[in-house]
Every structure is written in C-alpha cells, then in structure tokens.
Amino acid sequence: MRMVNSIPKLPLYVKYPFITSFNEYLKRLYGGHVSITYLLEHGRQEYVERAVVRVRSALKNLKYIPTGSEDVELSAFYIGLALASALGGWCLRKYVDTEAKRSYEYLLGDSEEVIVRVANAFGIHLEFLGSPQDVCGERVVIGYDTTTSKPVVYCLQFRTPVTTYLTGISKLTTEPKWKLVNQYVKGGYIYLGKKEVSRLLQEFIKYRLLSSVSDLSNVKFEGKIGDIVDRLREEIPAQKVGVDKLYEPALKVVAGRVVEEAHPPCIKNIIEGIRRNENLTHHQRFALAVYLINIGVDVEQIVDLFRYAPDFNERMTKYQVEHLAGLRGSKRKYSMYNCDKMKSLGMCVAECNVKNPLIYYKRILEKLNREVNC
Amino acid sequence: MSHLELSSKTKNIVKEFFRDYYSKVDVKVPDDFVMREFAFQTFDSESYIRHKSFSSLSLLKEYMISIIPKHSYFSSALYQNPGADSMDEKGWIGSNLIFDIDADEIRGCSPVKVSAYINGEYHDVELINDECLELAKEREVELLDILVNDFGFTYDELEVQFSGNRGFHTMVRPKDAAWLTLSSSARKEIIDYLKGMGLDIRYVIPDIKKKVKLSLPKPSEGGWRRRISKKLTDVSNEDLIEYLKSLIPKCVVEVDEKVTMDLSRLVRVQGSLNGKTGLKVVRLDSRSLHNFKFEEELSPFTDRTAIVLPTADMRKVKLLGYELELTGYMSFRVPASIAIYLALNKLAYIMKVI
What we know:
The complex is a heterodimer.
Chain A: H1 12-15, H2 22-30, H3 36-42, H4 45-59, H5 70-87, H6 89-109, H7 112-121, E1 127-128, E2 138-145, E3 151-156, E4 158-161, H8 162-168, E5 184-186, E6 189-192, H9 194-212, H10 223-235, H11 238-241, H12 243-252, H13 265-275, H14 282-294, H15 299-306, H16 314-324, H17 339-344, H18 357-373
Antiparallel strand pairs in A: 1-4, 2-3, 4-6, 5-6
Chain B: H1 8-24, E1 38-42, E2 48-52, H2 57-67, E3 69-75, E4 77-79, H3 87-90, E5 92-95, E6 98-102, E7 112-118, E8 121-127, H4 130-149, E9 158-162, E10 167-172, H5 184-195, H6 201-204, E11 212-214, H7 223-229, H8 240-251, H9 257-261, E12 266-268, E13 273-274, E14 279-280, E15 282-284, H10 286-290, E16 305-310, E17 314-319, E18 322-326, E19 332-335, H11 336-344, E20 348-353
Antiparallel strand pairs in B: 1-2, 1-3, 3-12, 4-5, 6-10, 7-8, 9-10, 9-15, 13-14, 16-19, 16-20, 17-18
C-alpha cells in the first residue's frame, strides 16, 4: 500500500467528511481502488474504533469530539455509516440525524465562504451575496430606531434557487418558518440568512447520507467486526428493537376501539412518517398526539408510537402527551386542529369533505361497524 | 346534463364546422410533443381517447382530421414512452408547471343563468360573461407579475392561453430543467405562495422592539413584502402592521391547486377548438392579454350565419360581443359563431346554415 503525500490538507474533511465520496477519497489516499471491506480488515485499527465511538455517541445522544486527523475521521465517518446501516433503520436515521445536526453547528461557526464550499461540494447552488468588506448581502430596511434614527437592517447573506430550496425543505413545510409563502423570494431565488442556510444544508446532508448508504450495502461485517456489530446491537435501547410489535397490534384493535384503517389520510401520513423513523415537526407531533388522545388511545400507547422518532426522549414525550391530554398543567384537554388549520400547516393530503380529522375517523368507524353488523 | 343530447342533425352540423376548421388550420404543439401523451374526446362518445403519441406533426394532423375532436389535449408531463397505457410504463421524465385561472371560481363573478327546456325538462345552463373574464384577466396579469418578478421567469418562458371557454392557462416552459422535476408537494408550496396560505405577517414584518419606527415594504424587495408594497395606498396609517395585514387579501392570486399539483395533467392544444364553445384556444402574449376581449373573433366561424331554434328565452344576454334577444322555440338567424356556441351549450338547435 502506497501513501500519497499530495492530498491537500483540508481540515474541512474532519468537519464535513461527506463532501467527498469515500471511494474518491480512498482512491486518492491509496492511489487506487480500495474497498471498505479491505479497509476493515487491513486498515488502521483506529478507523474502526473511532467509527464505533461515532455510532455509540449517536445512539446514546452523547457529544462526539472528533480527532484532528482527516483520514481517521473520514474513514470512521463512513465505516460508522455502514455500521449504523447494518444495525437497522432506526439506528441509521439516528446516526444520520446526529451527523447532520453536528454539521449544522459547525456551519454556524464557519465563514460564509466555507458554507458555500460545503454546499457546492454536493451540487447545491448557493451564492454568498456579500463581500469581505460588507457581509450583509441583501439589505432589507425594516424601520428606523426612534432614538438614534439609524436604519434597522435585516441581512440576507445568501441566495439559492427556488427549486433547490423547495427540494431541501420537503420535510419542513409543516413549519411556518420554512414555507415558501414566508420567504423572501426574488428573481427565482430564495434569500436567506446564515442560520437558515445552515439548517437548509443540514437537510441536504441528511438526504446525501441516506442516499450514499446504498454504496455501502455490500460491506460485510464478519469476524472481529461482526462481533463489534453484535455488541453495538445489544446497546440499542430495548424499546427500539421490538417497537413494531409493541405498537401495531395495540392500535389495530383496542377492545374494538382503535382501528387504524379508519385514520384520515393526513394522520396516516404522519404515522407512516414516524414509522419510517423520520423526525416529525412540532405541528405534526401536536396533531398526532391530540388526535390519538381524542380517539381514546392511552398515553402509554401514544408515547410508544413516538419511540420511532430518532430524537425520542421518553420523559419529555410522556410529559408533553400528558399535558395535551389535560392531565397536567392547565388541565385543559387540547382540541384537534380542524381541516382548515391542517391545510394551512401543509399537513392535509386529501380532500375528505369533513371539517375535522376526528369526524373522518368517527364516520369510517361507523361504516366499518355497520359492515361488521351486516 | 351531459347525457342530454340535442338532435343528431345539430350535432352533425357542428361537427362539419369543426371538420372544416381542422382541414384548414394547423394546431400548435410544444417542440417536444413526441414525448407527450395526447388525448381527445370526439362528438360521438363521452369517453376519452387516451395514451396517443405522435412521431410527427403531419401524423397528428392526419389523426385529428380523421376523428374530428371535440376536445384536444396533450400532457403537461414528458414521458419516455408517452403512448404506453399505464403510468408505470410511460416512464415519467418531468412535468411543466401549469396554472389554471377559471373565471367562474372568482369571487364577485356571477355567471348568467339560463334555463333551457329540452325534451320536457328544464336544465340550468351557466354562461360566462365578459365581466367575469375581465376579472380573470386581471388575476392572470397578477400571476404573470409574480412568475416574472418572484420566480424569475422571462416572458418567453411563459405560455399563456385563453382556454376557449372560461379562463386562462399558463404553462411554464423553463430554461432550467430543475422546474420540471418538482414534486407535487413542492408545487403545493408555490400554490400556497400565490394564495397566501400559511402566510405569517411576522415573517413579512419581523417582530422588532418598540423603539423602532417600521418602514413600509418596497417594490424592490422580495416575497410578500414586494407583493404588499404594490397595494399600498394609505401610507399615513397609524397601526402599520394592521394596515399591511388588511392588504393581504388584495394580493391573493386564486388558482386551481389541483391543476398545478397534478403531475400528469392534460392541457388544451393551442389552436384547437374548445368543444364546450366552439372557440379557439389561443396563445396570448403580454400585450394581447392586455387587449383581450370576449368577442366574436375568438371564433373561427364568423363568415356564415345559421337559423337556430333556441331552447330558452335569452333576454339581453351578452355573448361574444353580441347582445342576444331570443325567445325559446322561435327561429332566429344568428351568426354561425353564436349558433355553435349555443348549440354546444344545448341552448339552441341549428336548423340550417346559410
């Protein structure tokens, strides 16, 4: 194996390892094609060790502090991705979400130039509008300070094409902040501040990682590495492993009360999302919990459903669901969003001709009951 | 009402007019027509002929003359195999962004209701009037303004057409192909942007401290700030945020969201005839849109007249620039354009063409 010394020193790879494909990197590092399987067997022990730390800290919500070494971090990152993928859907989502979230934090602290570079590295058209002398970019004067008469300026430092933006926010449109209608849209571009751009890139990083998993699917974990995978598997919180079994029969028939087929399309859509281990937005969580409370599902069962979410926190979820059910705090039971509200929040997915999702459930239930009785 | 048929004599007369038209005129289809599905409805069947594809313009023309379509459409979608029967086999490549503005969906528009008496039964027929189309036209101008200023399209990329009946269709022929592959939910975001659905004023006027005197949004800005700035009149208003909120309804552009979200929508062929009216589907540029009038020149059948037997009383009904004074079941001589329009709306039998 020949080491090539001409690899540029890019601390960028430590922070953003995904901006280069692993195969490309290995090719440059070793001067030829090297498979991950080969690397697992013959590469530095440290690669696998760090990968395990990476995965473990993602699964346990611990902070991961990278070493300064590019080849260790880059290899550990990709081996970690392969490990997480081998551990199953929930672990993969958790790993991907954690990595993307950490990148977001790095981006916030990095210069505008680096942000553009990271975006461009995976084909995202992003433009910095400022200059070293003036980083403000597009200046929007909101008003004037009444004491100093100075203008109050909002700076939109970046812009990205509308099409790129729409692709990036596809999972965020239930949050008003991200809806196109609330953006500064001009000449085919969305103008954004640094924080928003970093968050948008976080989404693209997730897509990128999930799509690059398929390149790793033929990686085999055997022998020593196989043992590591098994040990990691034992560390996955017990509830996550059998989560399907815990939840599904419960919702299908609870003493003839909860019938999953009767959920309206909007609720089915949210449940499908959470079962795919996607993180839900605030409004989606609220709608799902309040809906389930109203059709009579127990707090425990609702909390169990939320276990699918990669960012699940049992104590918090239980507290919040109990709050929504009127068991805590103001003792007020929250009412379900009506269909107009669901529409405006982008959660409505079909025209059901009802005013409230709960009515849909009731109607279908009645219909099913009639069919059973006949 | 669709099951109701006027006499086969009337139908055949209208069909002959359509045949004559298609034998003389070439329809206009997009350059990439070979990748699109075509669909037609004829005078003889309620069902559509779907999944047609054509490898040349002359084959399309030949086919249209052979069936004499009542309605002619092509797909907003581009396919690898547009003639295949199922969506899966068609191989979706992308879909043009389309917008549909329908006059009778517009608030403040009340179509003329006519009660037709056919075969012993009454049937209500709604006729579009020019005021409604004027409202639709204003809305179309607003839509184009947003597509150009906010979404960055040039007028060359926007194909506007009068549908031949009640509204305007806009199809985006983008230079940037990324627009073609937007998902249905991404297109919904564009709809919400147009309609102001989910708009939160706090993102238009960010929440700021009391010690700030807010300034008005400017036309040079972006998003809803620009849109609201166009409607500013009373700039002295005390409560600026409330005033700006009150302007939101005036900025809303109502479009049919189902049309835009549908990735396999059928679009009317330019230069074809709308079988609900006998009027041409015509392309409008920004100037001809401005000058657009609901007049007889929209019909290709202006040089002949016909004797009709109306099925309803029509008093002071304005149609294609004429004011009708017709009595049910009395014969009248009217321009062929009117005769065909009425016949297709089951408001008259055509007795004879002169």
